[in-house]
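[Archive record]
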Amino acid sequence: MSEINTITVEGVEVSSVALSTEVSAAAEVAAALAVTLTAAAWQAFRSRRTSDAGKRLDELDAVQLETLRALRDSGHLVNRALLDNGWARLRSAASIHDARREGASLLNTAASTHQRIVVESAARACAAAAVRLGFSVHEQREGTAWSVVATNQAGRCLVAEVTPGNGGRPVVNAELLGVSDGTCGEVMARFRSALEEEGLRLGRTDRRFGGGAPVFAVGREAVKRGILRGRTPHVTSSRKGREGTGSKRPAVPTPRASVRRSR
């Protein structure tokens, strides 16, 4: 028997998990970049009034102002270095057409970075939550979707796939395999509680039960590779150079920024 959970993540506490990139709030980055605006544009940015302030500015200054306002109000979690590069291109734009293109590119970069950050945060939280339940993390693969595979000494296997979802809200598809005593519901309830303790704010959870055969691709691959045979393997990751020996958390750099919740 197995239990399958599909969990929508409404928010993440990024400061509670170790990530592979430095993270800042978009509003903080926008405020820092705004000091390079002209005096009039900077005052308009600070005032937060959007009526006709931009109309009194030079066209290029107005595009810069609009871009920073959109970044500030996005609620995104971003990588400052990536946005610094985009801002430099916007500032050096020679025409209004180029400026609008670079402004749109900067905002797209912010949105895609936010998506990667929240998906990675949710995946790292899944791995840490599994450890809280006495599992050892066997594998954590990266990509558009992250996969976490964890096993325990009883031969059970907890697998999770984390996908971007809609509106910046990651979706965790998790299932518990190798259970024969009817306790899968109890274990998955503890797993959800552990996710919250690891900084995830959970939304809707759809629960269903299976006959024991894995539903998701990561679970089917775990069975195919013999991970359900009761072994407790070492921690590995698909990222080159990152390996462990069963440590409770995958070893990755901790972000310097302490950012609270995503929207």
Remarks:
- Residues 24-115 form one domain.
